[in-house]
Amino acid sequence: MRDKIVAGNWKMNKNLEEALQLVNELKVANVDLTPKIIVIPSFPFINSIVNTLENSPIKVGAQNCSTQDSGAYTGEVSASMLKSVGAQYVVVGHSERRSYFNEQNEGLAEKVNQCLSNGLTPIYCCGELLEERESNNHFKIVESQINEGLFNLSESKMIDTVIAYEPVWAIGTGVTASPDQAQEMHAFIRALIAQKYNQQVADSISILYGGSCNPKNAKELFSLPDVDGGLIGGASLKSVDFMAIANSF
């Protein structure tokens, strides 16, 4: 049975006081929920949030990591550092990182390897721009991102990954992929994995939807056969909304 996951990517939001208030609200509300809950704050707050969530089933992730183990890379944060402060997941290749910081598939493959080598689970993001969908290149783009970012992994390492499909045209826009569009791409990604490895591997990997998922549309999206949860942006910044999404299972 694949993990059902609801992960909240806070992006560059919240100060420490606000972050701790939010996780305390989530900690109280998280009672016997079906999905695995992950909060993904900014780097400075990870350790404080890990400590606050001690004895809670809520997991903690980071929004990025370096391609390097250590060294003279001012401003970078390594996977081993994230592991040492209690992070368990790392978002790799979010569309904002690809767009604003020109991250490419080759470098993202290195980040995935860094995560796995340090006992962290990468949440590898893929997805197409609006013009790529409108030109009917969306499958080609996503296939390239998956192939170049993940398919260097062994079968055992591949099983330890999570994938998030995020149609870039639906992130922060209020526009959501239709259920048919979401299911079609999730099924396509799973078929790529089956073709590269085998069906058992494909069926074991959680594929999340990320793109303006909210309390109103989460239930329909999460009911799709190949959608295993969500990578949630803006709706993860309010505990009521985030838990409503988690309860959509």
Automatic annotation (TrEMBL):
GO molecular function, one term: triose-phosphate isomerase activity
Gene Ontology cellular component annotations, sorted alphabetically: cytosol
CDD domains documented for this protein: TIM (cd00311)
Pfam families per the UniProt record, alphabetical: TIM (PF00121)
Cross-referenced Gene3D superfamilies: Aldolase class I
Chain positions recorded as substrate binding sites: 9-11, 172, 212, 233-234
Catalytic activity: D-glyceraldehyde 3-phosphate = dihydroxyacetone phosphate
InterPro entries registered for this protein in UniProt: Aldolase_TIM, TIM_sf, TrioseP_Isoase_bac/euk, Triosephosphate_isomerase, Triosephosphate_isomerase_AS
Active-site residues, Swiss-Prot/TrEMBL: 94, 166
GO process annotations (BP): gluconeogenesis; glyceraldehyde-3-phosphate biosynthetic process; glycerol catabolic process; glycolytic process
Subunit annotation: Homodimer.
Family: Belongs to the triosephosphate isomerase family.
PANTHER family associated with the record: TRIOSEPHOSPHATE ISOMERASE
Full protein name: Triosephosphate isomerase
